[in-house]
């Protein structure tokens, strides 16, 4: 699973510190399945952004396939 | 799920049984298969099918007296498929088909066939095929018996000769001009392992076992017109074959009688309904026999008998391309899989559990019961996909919480002869009608009418959450006991069903029956003869009284009722049943579409969900309470969103408590008062993705407090998230003073656990 952030200008800033977001490895879990995904995060506040494209796309697919395991 | 039980249901399905043309054929030719090949113009393949069961195909195929045609389901006004003409066409156009034969090992047992008529040569040929050494004894100078008397127009002598030559080529010895008498039979019995008598007449009378064709002389078997003087040619083939089977078993010292139920003609157990089929007249051959084209056209008239009444009626079975047998196989595989995907989960969660299949099935196989048990089994093994029913179950939890649940005696009374149970969906769609109905009931019925707001547990039942359903029913039972076990008056047929089936000794009546008995409020508007297509709720399938009450109410209000093709006990689901609306929304919409295309007229429903789903798909539909209490034009009736449904229930309770019992109710949700603006497009998206307004408020309220969000300086949009129970909701919004304008909303179930 990967969030496609290439060639897109990242418009979001962290509301807390006002700093820019960076891509970094993030741990995610669903129904006992653990994943490491490259996601946008605030390097200072550690808040992670999940885009709709990912949530409704690949992430949903992975969720569904884990539910059917 | 219990495999034994699954298999026993599977075995009940009659669809695989052969149609009448096959069962009524004494030698069970696969006529349907043959006709399907003719349709494709594949006469050689059709010939192979014919030859599989018919000995001397090139002869019998031309002279068969075709008892099958009389039993063909299209045999109305002489329109039966011309099976015999087709059979002839197959012999003519497919007779050159190459047929592979395997060499048969000889068993060195000797059989004497006395009489070379149809039964004799059939018996000889069948036994030769099993490896026996067969000798035919014929008193005339040619074999063929009654075949020799068939006119040249039907069967040329040349054709007969060709077949006789084939017999000899197979190694059957033919002794012509050899008459066997009672006396000379003795010597033959000495020499041979068994004897077949097919001489037409025989001096000695035998006692014949009709199942085995064996006589009291255990080595002697009979066939042909010795058995029955009136025997037809095809019947002679049959008795010759029957005797051949017995002789083989006799010589091999096996049981002569075991498993012989389906030899010879019998009645097909398929129930074929051709009332709705347009059956065209027979194709008549221009000459004595069909041309290929004529044969193909005649074959196209075949209705291809199969049962599949369930598949023909059910959109789900059609969509999944499953019949009960295949479905049960699929469930079984899905249940047993250990490593790998449970690929049938979505299928199993796409059945509306409406029970139509069971209602139309001649042997009452109800997939709804199997699906429900399967879902229970999936839940018990922790294999039920959470997302399928999560929203509905949370909604049920809300409905059975203090936000909506209410159990009261009638204001000012301490007992209840009755209790009104409007159900969760009517209260969500029509809170104002619930209040009016309650007033009506209090006015009309004596002895106190209590009010019970809650959910019957249907979502838990549909989701396979057996424990949750049972505890919900138990709670209702306890509450009813506290009220003094009053007569429960339900407005919702699903509640009616669930209570009736699960609460022992419950006294229950539908609201519609009460209206029918006690009269309709006098200020109800009249329909002036307007025609409404009635849609019975699928949960009323067996409730004839409800069907009648609804029709009576509508007629009394001067509406005319149109009964759609699927109505009353064979009604169809609206698309909500079995929680398919949540588990497979796309398919749920197809179910709705399928139902609403049954009539051009406006619909009349009496379940709030049926009505709402129809209206959402653009079908003008009244709820029966719209006829009784409504003032709005049918085209103006709208459907509340999921958020509004919850709010309506909550407000109904609050209003009833205040107006009737003078009680105030103060429950507040976190950030409930936040002002948000959502345009219709986003609202629609939220409906599809099951996102509630309250979820959005909780995300925004929390983000505004914690600053846990992202910010786009250019558009001034804020993107915030919050995990609520097991779902993370994301909201993109813009602030406008104290109001929040929603730009987008989405969600996911996967949880971020660390950076």
Sequence-ordered SSE layout with sheet pairings:
The complex is a heterodimer of chains A (69) and B (755).
Chain A: E1 13-14, E2 22-30, E3 33-41, E4 48-49, H1 52-56, H2 58-67
Antiparallel strand pairs in A: 2-3, 3-4
Chain B: H1 3-12, H2 20-23, H3 31-39, H4 43-53, H5 57-63, H6 68-71, H7 83-94, E1 110-114, H8 118-129, E2 133-137, H9 157-169, E3 173-175, H10 182-191, E4 194-197, E5 220-222, H11 233-251, H12 292-299, H13 309-313, H14 315-320, H15 324-336, H16 345-348, H17 356-360, H18 367-380, H19 386-399, E6 406-408, E7 418-421, H20 424-429, H21 431-444, E8 449-453, H22 458-462, H23 466-482, E9 487-490, H24 493-502, E10 508-510, H25 511-518, E11 530-535, H26 544-556, E12 559-562, H27 580-583, H28 585-596, E13 602-605, H29 608-616, E14 621-623, H30 624-629, H31 642-661, E15 675-677, H32 680-688, H33 693-706, E16 709-712, E17 717-724, E18 727-736, E19 739-748, E20 751-754
Helix pairs in contact in B: 1-15, 3-4, 3-12, 4-7, 5-7, 7-12, 8-11, 15-18, 21-31, 25-26
The radius of gyration of chain A is 13 Å
Q: Let me know the number of strands of chain B.
A: 20
Helix- and strand-based class of chain B? alpha/beta
User: Widest sheet of chain B: strand order?
Assistant: 3-2-1-4-5
The number of distinct β-strands of chain A equals 4
| Overall body shape of chain B | elongated
Tertiary shape of chain A: elongated
Strand content of chain B: 5-15%
Oligomer: heterodimer
Largest sheet strand order of chain A:
2-3-4
H/I helix tally of chain A: 2
